[in-house]
Amino acid sequence: MNSPAFQEFQRDFGRHLRDPHHVARPKGVPARGAAVYGELLFNNVSGFLDACFPVCRQLLGEPRWRRLNRTFFRDWPSQTPWFREIPREFVHYLQTGNIRQPLPRWFAELAHYEWAELAVDVMEVSIPAHDPDGDLLDGHPLLNPALMNLAYAWPVHRIAPDWKPRRPEATHLLVYRNRDEVVQFSALNPVTARLLELLAEGRASGREACLHIAAELRHPDPQAVLAFGAQMLDELRCQGAILGICT
Fold first, then answer.
1. Per the CB 3.0–4.6 Å rule, which of 1, 32, 162, 172 could disulfide with 193?
2. Residues ≥6 apart with Cβ < 8 Å to 26
């Protein structure tokens, strides 16, 4: 078991490594060794961020991006020991809004969208028993468990160095891992996003979910919504976002 004195040393050394310009080294730690170790840690963290957020990095430019990496490394109390969770912690850091560096209003959502690809790619899932050819209206559609149904205030999937949005635009995006274990992205309209939300609850048949949406919309022709829903369910199954019906 670590002694209290050694635990205090670890905390002091950690604080110094995060912020070497403002937190003194613990006694007995060589300056050069601490500097090399701190830079290795920072470069390691930055490497994971660079790999996960290429568009964010390109849009900010190298100096601003590296400065943002540094403040994340210095200020954010990460709650996980896993390297692959560093990008998720970075997204949480951006979502707090407690960042002195000025960033575009859409930046946190763009980072979340970029992180979603990694999140879906590494999801550990099990596939329940299902009938891949079952009736999606009368049965209970089974969503691909490696899937995220995302809603954003900004059109994050279109943001690029040559185009940046000037005003919010409600956006629904589907991110999922297909049968070939490849992460796919698809833009959704609000009705399809709502359909997936209802199906994710696992209680409604395809027909019930479609009619529920028709009631929410106060649509004058529920059968038209049902026909649209049946077509969309088939498309989602073909894409691999729906695996079939529960058995």
1. 172
2. 9, 12, 13, 16
Secondary structure in 3-state letters for the chain: CCCHHHHHHHHHHHHHHHCCCCCCCCCCCCHHHHHHHHHHHHHHHHHHHHHHCHHHHHHHCHHHHHHHHHHHHHHCCCCCCCHHHHHHHHHHHHHHCCCCCCCCCCHHHHHHHHHHHHHHHCCCCCCCCEECCCCCCCCCEEECCCEEEEEECCCHHHCECCECCCCCCCEEEEEEECCCCCEEEEEECHHHHHHHHHHHCCCCCHHHHHHHHHHHHCCCCHHHHHHHHHHHHHHHHHHCCEEEEEC
Tell me phi and psi for residue 17, to 5 degrees: -65, -35
- What is the Cα–Cα distance from 138 to 116, expressed in whole angstroms? 32
Query: Mean pLDDT over residues 98-109, rounded?
Result: 92
In tens, the pLDDT along 118-133 reads 999 999 999 999 999 9
Please state, in angstroms and rounded to a whole number, the distance separating the CA atoms of residues 220 and 199.
23
What domains are there in the chain, each with its CATH number?
1-103 (1.10.150.690), 126-247 (3.90.930.50)
Instruction: Indicate whether 23 pLDDT > 80.
Output: no
Q: Which residue has the tokens 């954003």?
A: 152
Task: State residue 40 phi and psi, 5-degree precision.
Answer: -65, -45
Cα–Cα distance for residue pair 38/13, rounded to 1 Å:
10
Output the six-digit token pair for 101. Answer: 């560096």
